[in-house]
Structure prediction request, 516 residues.
Amino acid sequence: VTGKVYLVGAGPGGIDLLTVKAARLIGQADVLLYDALVTPDIVELAQSARKICVGKRGGRASTDQAFINRLLVASARDGSVVVRLKGGDPMIFGRAQEEIEACRAANIEVEVVAGVTAASAAAAQLGISLTQRGIARSLAFVTPTHGLGTLDDDSWADGLIATQSIAIYMGKGQSTRVRHVLLARGFGDAMPVVLVYDVGRDKAGHIAGTLANLGELVNLPTNGPIMILVGEVFKGIAAADAKTILSRATAAPKRRAL
Amino acid sequence: VTGKVYLVGAGPGGIDLLTVKAARLIGQADVLLYDALVTPDIVELAQSARKICVGKRGGRASTDQAFINRLLVASARDGSVVVRLKGGDPMIFGRAQEEIEACRAANIEVEVVAGVTAASAAAAQLGISLTQRGIARSLAFVTPTHGLGTLDDDSWADGLIATQSIAIYMGKGQSTRVRHVLLARGFGDAMPVVLVYDVGRDKAGHIAGTLANLGELVNLPTNGPIMILVGEVFKGIAAADAKTILSRATAAPKRRAL
Prediction:
């Protein structure tokens, strides 16, 4: 009997934002391969599975993609139900295609289960629609990092000036570059920006400002993933936070504004 | 006791793509307000709720937004747990902001629960990543319809030519216009296009082609929602479908190509 591979979106973090199907499949898995960003409470749902962390984190060494592909195929050939858990949605910056193709090439059945992408959860956390009527009827998801982590071009920002709301994935440690590239593409200093951190997790939070001070917004109380949101829909929250930042800076002038 | 309003994403359809939190909240709801696109199996999860369909469908009369706002506030004031279910994700073309603001203005606690957006589920159905490495590092969600259903400008297409993958929401009945606008913005005739219908539902399917024949792809076997996907990542599926369409057209020349 040949098994099957499920590429499953784990959502941004926490069991609550798993889909019903994802939760069921994780519970049924014989083998669970998961990224480093998948939260431990989700991994623990796989009570009877062999659990293998194949995850990558920005800057750290990651498991070779070819190795992951071989592991998926070999596990399914053994007859196992294989769940490959990816943070967020597999089809949005989830590097799913390589694994889908590897399974298909080996005649292993593969099914993708969509998940909640981080931008949706970040917007929910803020209580701000990404496509607020009268302000935004287009929304772009981009990443300044290539799949291979290189930064050899800034084509991700092409055409963005015409888009009303922008969610920047995998932008951690790249605030200065993002600011530089967006300003060079015609965005104004006053464009509202929000850094949302630990989306869907216990310590979730955000800090808002404008493109002008994006470089100063990066001292976040987290080692987790961040999402950079840009657009006029964030104007209200950016203005509210600017007051908070100003009062903090005044109260404790030696500390850098958070 | 004042109640609380939850704006909850129902995902694209079917209980399986609800989040765990959405399923729980629906089961606990005293009052459930839902859009017409939310599938009946999901509505039935609200066993003890008063259920009110406030939904709109393209072309049909819809419940006035101000009435929905008043109903949300009045129900929560009664002490009820109010679940406002929206198809997909509330923050992506879900008109959430008006309802959030109405609750805040009335001092009613409001929480948004993210859902799986239709583009994610459509990509999962096709088995094609929207951000396939080496082909697409930017993804745009746009709609050719304004919130009010008017078509007074085509600014939704500004800058899109620089975006590698595009998901067009609420494009039903607008294929001809979409084709016209994209061609006018510099897209080529050969750009792959996929119409995905009934995403997340039993009768889900798709038909693929190119921008040149988008106008001929619209005879879909459904009255449900559709998603128009555009981009080079769909090249393989478009080529495969073109052969199928061609052979069908040859076999039954009197019928229009499906």
